[in-house]
UniProtKB/TrEMBL annotation, chain A:
PANTHER family per UniProt: TRNA MODIFICATION GTPASE GTPBP3 (PTHR42714), TRNA MODIFICATION GTPASE GTPBP3, MITOCHONDRIAL (PTHR42714:SF2)
InterPro entries: G_TrmE, GTP-bd, GTP-bd_TrmE_N, GTPase_MnmE, MnmE_dom2, MnmE_helical, P-loop_NTPase, Small_GTP-bd
Cofactor note: Binds 1 potassium ion per subunit.
Gene designation: mnmE
Binding locations of Mg(2+): 239, 260
PROSITE patterns assigned: G_TRME
Name of this chain's protein: tRNA modification GTPase MnmE
Lineage: Bacteria, Bacillati, Bacillota, Bacilli, Lactobacillales
Family designation: Belongs to the TRAFAC class TrmE-Era-EngA-EngB-Septin-like GTPase superfamily. TrmE GTPase family.
Enzyme class of the recorded protein, top EC level: hydrolase
GO terms, molecular function: GTP binding; GTPase activity; identical protein binding; metal ion binding
Major location (coarse): cytoplasm
TrEMBL record, chain B:
Binding site for FAD: 18-23
Superkingdom: Bacteria
GO molecular function ontology, one term from the record: flavin adenine dinucleotide binding
Gene Ontology CC terms, in alphabetical order: cytosol
Official protein name in the record: tRNA uridine 5-carboxymethylaminomethyl modification enzyme MnmG
One Gene Ontology term from the biological process aspect of the record: tRNA methylation
Predominant location category: cytoplasm
Keyword NAD found: yes
UniProt key word Endoplasmic reticulum: no
Region (Disordered): 209-233
Residues spanning the signal sequence: none
Assembly: Homodimer. Heterotetramer of two MnmE and two MnmG subunits.
Length: 464, 636
């Protein structure tokens, strides 16, 4: 049997996260996917079951005939599958030993271990998705909140691709008209592509690109999280603020493996905004220890932050150290939390207002969780003008590669406009217009860039 | 009829079949490189004949003529000796798209080229019809004529033009014929397909009626004179040879009108294009008038240019009125047009169908993939136009000549020349209609200018032996002059006070600080001559072409750099070679369509592969990975 368009070899990998879980899934894709699974499966004949069915049975070790695990096996035949190839997914009990054993058996047959991102790479290579969609898959996997996921899903649906393709078509139409005028200089029966028309079009496309770019800040926050530093003198209650934000159900811990910094990142879901806490270790440490490390550490955290939450103890007067932090954070996006507001205020408010605008201040106390709600609202407002829901109507750019290309395309269009301004002939200005067209094509992968693909797909986690 | 008895003729190094614009260049190039060359033509009175428009050049085409000249070809020199009008087009646009066009004296052009060919010591010109090739073990070893002569050679170039099973169609009338009622070649392409299994296509082209100049009312049309400023195609032709504007011939502009369109519409059932009589595919870029009326129904008029066919004739060519309508209808059409009310038609327009070798069967050297040492060029490869033909003819002649000499072939890249763009397009994308060069086909337009064709290609022309040492020395001197003047201008400073008045008169802002002369020249409102008002002239008396280069290089430096950056970006792909005889069926990831196209076209680089329509970016990704390391795709 042959799949519709391609004949890659067959690959397999564990698609669920490593470790113990309720179930684990082993995914197999390729021409021999069904044959391979059928060889080790006891139950219905997988070669004969209908496509897109899930089948109960057992995995048998072909070496000794022993039962390895009780499984549910999904059979999905090409082309309507993730990779556009035949795909089999074995749902087994989630033990590390059983899952690995099943994978090993599969690899001893007609499949090889998939490289990171290879399933998605195949979806791309088999023409099911374009480059920006493939990237969306990666974003989806890493999505921290519902909102992040929604944006990634939109992109996966091809909404961004569609928009980019329309922009490219607009540019192409203009270019075509420029060409007709050049190749048929003596014919008056084609509308002359004047500099003015070119200017109008370039302005139009540029505006659309700028609109897209304006979503980039929010998009990037949704995708990568908002790097947030909670700073303040020891004992002012940073940990309690953190603990309020970290309701049990909201805490997300992501293992960022495979990158150079093999660290644990903690995310807090604040009304759909993923806050990435910078130097949480510093906060978690006991205040005694923190005291020793002092302000230096806070400073380091500050330099990495998109958002600074500065905590002050309102039950004691401002200390020099507080003043220093207030001065240092003046240029940042910040929220100043007056903690222990249930106690008598000892801070000189007139002095405080020399450093801080009233709108930046929030009062909070351990006994009044209302302060936390205020804090969350304030964060949402700062980054999404109060309403994150609005973002669902727009197509957002979230990916640094896309943002970079859009910015370059914007620059190219600026050159078009500049060229027209100084009276350059349209056939020269056209060079910049073509550049914009090329750059937009790189987003969707229509302009081919050879090193790009390897680089992109290597960022995927194994099994996707 | 008894069989013609065959005999062995003389042996040659290179044989060129057909002496049109492609064949003339091919034969001259091969011979000048030192090959004993035979040029065969059906009719000696039609060497380098212009069966259609009496002009050479225009957008893109004019650049090709200059490229031919820089490589040591003949077209530019020949037209410079035989033009009746010279005109620079697109002067209001940038330097990349400016183009020279000449009206030719059709007869003089032919006679001059014939004389040049006859004068070439290594070259034999002979009348005769080639019926077949001599092919042994897939290698072409010569040709066989209808008179029974067997000529052996190391390589053979076919430039068959519309003679290849040509068929003329005028209304209901159709007959076997080459261009302008010459004899057609009935056997050769038949053998190509039946005996040697070439995939042939059938194309159509056409020409308008000619009218008697004595019967044209010129006063009802607009005069289109030539240029006063001297310009020639060849880098070797001095300005002193320029024909004074008084002695140039003008063209005349008129238009079709509603009445013309009505006549055409009423007679469409008699138009071979629409009655189904013509099977061949016609060119989209210079369609017949009936085609234009049907496809652009909303246009109330179309431009027509009346062009002289030469100095010793009063026959006039009606450019824009290409047609295969019946003769009677053609006369009605002519008489409906302003200025042509009383025109006497001297020759009717006609359509001509002919055989084309589908160009995917060619390498980018123009050698066929099926038969070694066999090359094709010109209309045979599916192009339209004298310049396109000549450009290919030159390359085919050079490569056939180099093969005979045992040397490596010459391949022009897309970033080298329009000729490179054209050949790459043909062998990579093929063509479904007669292919015409347009500037929009070149992605590196600003680099491929007509003014720098010598700077791009003279080195190559000299290396292959078509540019003489004297010509080459003159070129090196020009290069040096440009370099020196650029250097000089980047060292002289201009003070704001010097140019204050001048800039005010131009309505532009004055200078705040002093600038270098080269920076000053960068301003759009400043020309080199303006600049000379403020600085000393160069010690050396500079040729206007040197000044032109200096001006362009300075004024458009930013754009030229961007264009060069683009070349560099794609360079890696251009340099990534695909091994010969790669087995695409062994690369398992390729989509079916991509695989089929790759197998058919056999691209030589990844960049070429990426230009094949139907080959997706994913196919390219798989292919490059396969070539590099064979990682993604399973082999075998």
């Amino acid at each position: 049997m042959q799949s519709i368009s391609t004949e890659f070899d067959t690959i397999a990998a564990i698609s669920t996260p490593p470790g113990e879980g309720g179930i684990s899934i082993i995914r197999i894709s390729g021409v021999d996917a069904l044959k391979t699974a059928a060889q080790i499966y006891q139950g219905k004949n997988l070669n004969k079951v209908e496509s897109h069915t899930i089948n109960y049975g057992h995995i048998i070790d072909p070496d000794n005939g022993n039962e390895v695990d009780e499984v549910m096996v999904s059979v999905m035949r090409a082309p309507n599958t993730y990779t556009k190839e035949d795909v089999v997914e074995i749902n087994c009990h989630g033990g590390i030993v059983a899952t690995n054993r099943i994978l090993q058996i599969i690899l001893s047959l007609d499949a090889r271990l998939a490289k990171p991102g290879e399933f998605t790479e195949r979806a791309f290579l088999n023409g099911r998705i374009d480059l920006s969609q493939a990237e969306a898959v990666m974003d989806l996997i890493r999505a921290k909140t519902d909102q992040s996921m929604k944006v990634a899903l939109d992109q996966l649906d091809g909404n961004l691709s569609h928009l980019i393709k329309n922009l490219r078509q607009d540019i192409l139409d203009v270019l075509a008209q420029v060409e007709v005028n050049i190749d048929y200089p003596e014919y008056d029966d084609v509308e002359t592509m004047t500099a003015r028309l070119l200017q109008e079009k370039a302005t139009e496309v540029k505006a659309k690109i700028q609109q897209l770019l304006s979503t980039a800040k929010q998009g990037k926050v949704l995708r990568d999280g908002l790097a947030t530093a909670i700073v303040g003198h020891p004992n002012v209650g940073k940990s309690s603020i953190l603990n309020h934000l970290l309701h049990e159900d909201k805490a997300i811990v992501t293992d960022v493996a495979g990158t150079t910094r093999d660290v644990i990142e903690e995310y807090v879901n604040v009304q759909g905004v993923p806050l990435k806490l910078v130097d949480t270790a510093g906060i978690h440490e006991t205040d005694d220890k923190v005291e020793k490390i002092g302000v230096d550490r806070s400073r380091k955290a500050l330099s990495q932050a998109d958002l600074v939450i500065l905590v002050l103890d309102s039950s004691v007067p401002l200390r020099d150290e507080d003043r220093e932090l207030l001065r240092e954070t003046a240029g940042s996006q910040r929220i100043v939390v007056l903690n222990k507001a249930d106690l008598d205020n000892q801070i000189n408010l007139i002095e405080l207002h020399e450093y801080v605008k009233d709108s930046e201040i929030i009062k909070s106390s351990a006994v009044s969780p209302m302060g936390t709600k205020d804090l969350e609202d304030r964060i949402a407002k700062m980054f999404f003008a109060g309403s994150i829901e609005n973002t669902s109507n727009n197509i957002m750019v979230t990916n640094a590669r896309h943002i970079g290309l859009l910015k370059q395309a914007e620059t190219a269009l600026d050159s078009v406009l500049e060229g027209i301004e100084v009276g350059m002939p349209v056939d020269l200005v056209q060079i910049d217009m073509t550049r914009a067209w090329d750059l937009l094509g790189e987003i969707t992968g229509d302009s081919y860039q050879d090193e790009l693909l390897d680089q992109l797909f290597s960022q995927f986690c194994l099994g996707k | 009829m008894s069989e013609v008895k065959q005999y062995d003729g003389r042996e040659y190094d290179v044989i060129v079949v057909g002496a049109g614009h492609a064949g003339s260049e091919a034969a001259l190039a091969a011979a000048r490189m030192g090959n004993k060359t035979l040029l065969m033509t059906i009719n000696l009175d039609m060497v380098a004949f212009m069966p259609c428009n009496p002009s050479v050049g225009g957008p893109a085409k004019g650049i090709v003529v200059r490229e031919i000249d820089a490589l040591g070809g003949e077209m530019g020199r020949n037209i410079d000796k035989t033009y009746v009008q010279m005109r620079m087009l697109n002067t209001g646009k940038g330097p990349a798209v400016r183009a020279l066009r000449a009206q030719a004296d059709k007869h003089a052009y032919h006679a001059e080229m014939k004389k040049t060919i006859e004068a070439e010591p290594n070259l034999t010109l002979r009348q005769g019809i080639v019926d077949d090739l001599i092919v042994e073990d897939g290698i072409c070893k010569g040709v066989v004529t209808n008179t029974g002569a067997r000529y052996h050679a190391k390589s053979v170039v076919l430039t068959l033009g519309t003679a290849a099973r040509g068929k003329i169609i005028i209304g209901e009338l159709q007959y076997s014929s080459g261009p302008n009622n010459s004899q057609s070649a009935l056997e050769l392409t038949k053998n190509l397909t039946e005996k040697y299994h070439f995939d042939l296509e059938r194309f159509k082209t056409g020409t308008p009626p000619r009218v008697d100049g004595g019967t044209i009312h010129y006063d009802e049309t607009e005069e289109q004179p030539g240029d006063e400023t001297p310009n020639h195609f060849s880098f070797q032709t001095p300005d002193s040879k320029y024909i004074d504007i008084k002695n140039q011939l003008s063209c005349w502009l008129t238009y079709t009108n509603e009445k013309t369109h009505e006549i055409i519409r009423e007679n469409l059932d008699r138009a071979p294009m629409f009655s189904g009589m013509i099977e061949g595919v016609g060119p989209r870029y210079c369609p017949s008038i009936e085609d234009k009326i049907v496809r652009f129904a909303d246009k109330s008029r179309h431009q027509l240019f009346l062009e002289p066919e030469g100095r010793k004739t009063d026959e006039w060519y009606v450019q824009g009125l290409s047609t295969s309508m019946p003769e009677e209808v053609q006369q009605q059409i002519l008489h409906s047009i302003k200025g042509l009310e009383d025109a006497e038609m001297m020759r009717p327009g006609y359509a001509i169908e002919y055989d084309v070798v589908a160009p995917y069967q060619l390498k980018n050297t123009l050698e066929t993939k099926l038969i070694k040492n066999l090359y094709t060029a010109g209309q045979t490869n599916g192009t339209s136009g004298y310049e396109e033909a000549a450009g290919q003819g030159l390359i085919a002649g050079i490569n056939a000549g180099r093969r005979a000499l045992g040397e490596e072939p010459l391949v022009l890249k897309r970033s080298d020349a329009y000729i490179g763009v054209m050949i790459d397009d043909l062998v990579t994308k093929g063509t479904k209609e007669p292919y015409r060069l347009l500037t929009s086909r070149a992605e590196y337009r600003l680099i491929l200018r007509h003014d720098n064709a010598d700077l791009r290609l003279t080195e190559m022309g000299h290396q292959i032996g078509l540019i003489s040492d004297d010509e080459y020395d003159a070129f090196l001197e020009k290069q040096e002059d440009i370099k020196n003047e650029l250097q000089r201008l980047s060292e002289i400073r201009i003070k704001p006070s010097q140019v204050q008045e001048f800039l005010e008169s131009k309505g532009s802002n004055g200078l705040k600080d002093g600038v270098l002369a080269s920076e000053f020249l960068r301003r759009p409102e400043v020309s080199y001559n303006d600049l000379l008002k403020f600085i000393d002239e160069s010690e050396k008396d500079l040729d206007r072409r040197v000044i032109e280069q200096v001006e362009i290089e300075i004024k458009y430096a930013g754009y030229i750099k961007k264009a060069k950056d683009r070349v560099d970006r794609l360079k890696r792909m251009e340099e990534k070679a695909i091994p010969d005889r790669i087995d695409y069926s062994a690369i398992n990831g390729l989509a079916t369509e991509g695989r089929q196209k790759l197998e058919k076209i056999q691209p030589t680089t990844i960049a070429q592969a990426s230009r094949i329509s139907g080959v997706t970016p994913a196919d390219i990704a798989i292919l490059s990975v396969y070539i590099q390391q064979g990682k993604i795709a399973k082999v075998g």
